[in-house]
Amino acid sequence: MADGHLANKKDETKKKFKRAPNKNYAVKKRLPARPVEGGNVIFITKKTNFKAQLDKCCDLLTKGENEIILHGLGAAIQRCCNLALQLQTLFAGTCQIEVNTGTVDVVDDLEPLTDDLDYGAQVRHSSSIHIRIFRTVLLGAN
Amino acid sequence: MDENQFDSSLGGREHLPQEANSLRFATGRSIEIAAMTENILRPNKTKLIFQTLPVHMRRRVMSHNCKRLPRKLREAHLEQLKKSGLPPKQKRPSRKYRRRPGNLLSEYIRRQRRIFWLETHIWHAKRFHMIERWGYKIAYAPCDKAFRACYRATSAHCLIQDISYLIPIQITGPIGTIKKSFTTMTKQECGLSICAKANITGCREGSVHLYKPEQYPYGYIGKVDYLWEVCNEIFGTLWLFVHPAFSEEVKAILTKLFILTNLHYCSDDKYIVPTKKKKPIENLNQEENVNIIFLPNVLNRFRLTGPKSHAIMASSLICVQQNQDLKNNEWVSLLKDNDTNIELEEKSSYWQMLKEVRSSAELPPRLVLGLIVKDPRLSRPARRTKAIKETTCNNKLNSLLNIPNFAASSPLWNLNIHENMKSKMLSNTQFIERITKTQIVPGEIFENDPVIQSVPIILVQRPGSQDAKLKKIGYGCGWDIIMPSGYGLPFWQTLIMFGARAGGLREFESIALEMGECYMPPDCNSGIQNEIRIEKELKEKYFRLPPNKRVNYIKLAINSPFRCLWKILLKDWCNEQIQEFYVLRDKHTLQKLQESVDKKRPLSEWTQGNSCLIPVYLQIVKKGHMNCHAIICLPKLGDFEETAITEPLHNDPNARLRKEMRQSHRTHIKSVKRKNVKLKKRANKGIRVVPCIKKTSKIVPSEYVMKMRNLWLPPNVENVRNLCSREVLGYVSQGAFSFSEARSCGVGYIAYNALRTLLENGLNRVLIRNTSSRTYRMAILHIIVS
What we know:
The structure holds 2 protein chains of 2 kinds. Chain A is built from 3 helices and 5 strands. By secondary structure, chain A is an alpha+beta fold. Chain A has one domain: Translation Initiation Factor IF3, CATH 3.30.110.20. In chain A, helix 2 packs across helix 3. In chain B, the strands form 4 sheets. In chain B, strands 6-7-8-5-11-10-9 form a 7-stranded antiparallel sheet. Chain B is globular, with a radius of gyration of 36 Å. The interface between A and B is medium-sized, with 27 and 33 residues. Chain B: It is found in: Nucleus.
């Protein structure tokens, strides 16, 4: 038991700095908080088919949406950029891009694997990108 | 001449006697009396009852409609009708009569005598296919074929299901004793034990796999959710929510474990019991001071799944903020002194803070929150609306990290208040009258009305998927809401009016499949019962088809199309008889297995593995579909290069036999018919003979039909492994198109030795073949760790 307590103390000091795989806890992810949702807001994921999301954006823009907002988090940032650049080439001259970057706080839950431990939680920071694509030439103008 | 006849007083000669001897009088007329009584007792047999009536009492349709007869004659009349062979037809009462409230209610009570109804039964019965399962009438699926809509509700909106059939069991006693007893039923390897520090504070719900005492890994019972309601460090109350499929087993085992001596049924007036059939059972072990109460139908529990469930909860629940508002509720006075500190203000402000969150997946996992809310009818919108939460994006992340201590406590656990609460609840009529007539502004809702009582409820959060590798984070998240009996329908209707979509039992199966969880595993009794039921249904369906529309499973080399033969499968993979088998639930081992599957690392030999099944989640890689009972096969070398692998057609030796049998049966029937015709002719001539063929009932199939069925599906299966060109590793027990993966997915089980062979061959993909197809499809394999 004494050894176990020592190990716990070690872990507590550790877990503030490092998200290492741990024998006592399993790391479970929570859903990150989302910014304002809407019809023209698209969250880019790694799992969804790239082409499908591109088509969705094209559809929105061609069907009269003045601006669409793409959000990418963590590993999906690159995809988000790619998508925006693709859209830029597709709608060359009619659309402009505004890029913002930020940080999103996400929560990881520490689920205990042994009986004598309680749940824990830690905050992790993840980079995010928010791209606004807006039309400069309105539909029907030409 | 006439003089002789006159009485002497009138001047005649006849002298009447002074007294009449009644006995002599009667004996003188005995023959007449006998004839008369004979006539009365045995009336003329040629007459029907109604013909004995005087003409003025006869009515035209008397013989058809017995109601036209005087009541005292009806019974005899019906008897006569039965004898004459005419079934007495009773006309169904008119709909208008049947729908009168009193008659309707008595009818409902009659129908509940055999099987139990949930509180929302009538709401469901109008919109759902209802099925009988586990002693309850449960909604199976909505009538509007809303399969995809229900999926969409779970992934983007909100799906609500009534799970009030879960049976709460309250165990009160010293924590040490409870822990000691449960260690025999649970195992450390399968996850946290029932007295884990994480759950014992009552802040979070937990779940355990229950096994029969000292039989691990065999003797699996099922997965049970539990909540702690702790009074102090030593003494506590545990609430188990047991599925009715195995509640009887759990009941028997708990009674044995705690050596409950004092088994008796509670008196009815102690707890609210809707019908007399399902009584709470209270058991007391006096030595150890452990008290167990089984409380069917005392609590209602609804399950809300989907990201919008939080918004729906936020808009339908209005917290009571001050103790003053509660004063008028009678149930508050029934609480004990130490329970009256309900911490209303802290709770309502905490709920206010939680409301800001967009989805319940952002909250602490499995959080338990006891609230006291106002009557749900007060917050109900006039039309069905979608609850939308416009959140202000303020950063309160730190307050969501941990659960405050006051969150879990709730007066709902106190059983004394339930009856009072139910009796003091306003019925819908009273509620509407209250709102429309007694208010100063009719129809305007006054929330703090003292007559309308507040309700204690408990919310339990479900985190949904927590691993992005398997499923998008937060899929299947939502809330469970527990409320006292009587309040089921008001809450249900409010939640529906805020845009929740109702689902049934089918959605449990589909959600489990989408999440990649085992639903009714094959090593427990409930799972076996389920398999038997499915097999029966499918078999009936199969044999209802005309022979030329039936799939010939012999040609496809499938010998058990409607049931997975786990025992024979395991026997084939270890070459010894298997008495019992089990599904592996040891988390550590399963994770190791997953690692070795990922890295194609061969497994070591394991003696216990002979009777062990590994739960796997399967995803079709490219093309193809996966159904229930599909076989999981071992690929051969070179299979991955080919586009389509097909099973060669097998020879069906039974086809010839079936044909011969059919022909001989046909000739037999023809000859019998001919004989019968002859006999009939003879009978017409006046000779009475018994016909050759006895008409049997249609429910029991004849011997010929049974033989024929056995030729279609041979009953004695001895070998499953080497039946087709690829070796069989296991079976898919649940398989369908998964909307969240956009491909066909399934949950199946593989023999441990089979998995070993697969990995020895350096493979981590398998082939899958449906029971009705010859094509093998490729699938990826994940081990289910849960």
